[in-house]
Amino acid sequence: MKNILVPTDFSAESHHAYEVALQLAQQTGGSVTLLHVLEAPESATPNFSTFGGPVNGTELPNSGGMDQLFTIKLMEVTKRRMNQLKEEAATLAPSVSVQDAVEVSRIGDGILTAVEKYGIDLVVMGAQGHGAMEGFFVGSNTERIIRLAPCPVLSVKHAQSGFDVRNIVFPSDFTEEAAAAIEGLRQVVAAFPNATLHLLYVASNTDGTTAEQHIQVFAERVGLTNYKIDVVNAARTSTGIEQFAQEVKADLVVIPTHARTGLSRFLQTSIAETVATSAFPPVLTYHLKSSG
């Protein structure tokens, strides 16, 4: 996860994500690409098949008239703000290479395009819940990237006073399906070797002792170390995850997902989306590779 993309709208949420991304890149020897998505005027052609020419290296839609003039001016302001963020990085993380990019598109499409264009390994993006005002990181946009991005997505909602990960929460039902997620989890644990891994099972009216024994067998079978087993009762899986993460002061929640239907509820994308936009700590989501 060395090639990191940070979508930004210059809000507090995107700045929180930027700071976390710089710290991760510094730890891993990675680089950061700052992305701003300019939504083209409504009068522009839907597929942007004709362009008004490049501004600072970015093609603009040939919408003509005041719309195009406004877009050009907005691009110039965007570039200045991007440069300010790059200058900030030179102070916060001088060893990290930071480049900037602008896509002219719908927000979600622009982010997904950039992931492919720049060979991104990890998207670190700000997140707001559905109760927030409509904006770049409103819940629906974040959820779409979690669902469609081919790489892991780290959602950040609050400022992190040093992204020093000491407690990682991994919610699962620890079935055979869950075993497919372990390789991704190992990569996370390897990045934070001093962290305690909380293996969390959430259910309603479950037998705690039986569940703990099941998790213990699973952990030994897949070779996990430095972990704690936690079983909680909650009416909703996402609520149980969020409450437990707050209780143990989790620094990171890790949730694998799968696009296939009929799998464990812990692997349902909807659970990951809800937790990513609701839980307090940063939430890392990643897709399991399809078996067929």
Topology at a glance:
Layout: E1 3-7, H1 12-28, E2 31-38, E3 51-55, E4 58-61, H2 65-92, E5 97-104, H3 107-117, E6 122-126, H4 139-148, E7 153-156, E8 167-171, H5 176-179, H6 182-191, E9 196-203, H7 208-222, E10 227-233, H8 237-247, E11 252-257, H9 269-278, E12 283-287
Parallel strand pairs: 1-2, 1-6, 2-5, 6-7, 8-9, 8-11, 9-10, 11-12
Antiparallel strand pairs: 3-4, 7-12
Helix pairs in contact: 3-4, 4-9, 8-9
Offer a concise description of the structure.
This protein is of the alpha/beta class and 292 residues long.
Overview of this protein structure:
- InterPro entries: Rossmann-like_a/b/a_fold, Universal_stress_UspA, UspA.
- This is Nucleotide-binding universal stress protein, UspA family.
- Pfam families: Usp.
- This protein is α/β, with parallel strands linked by helices and 292 residues long.
- It contains nine helices and twelve strands.
- The longest helix is centred in the N-terminal third of the chain and has 28 residues.
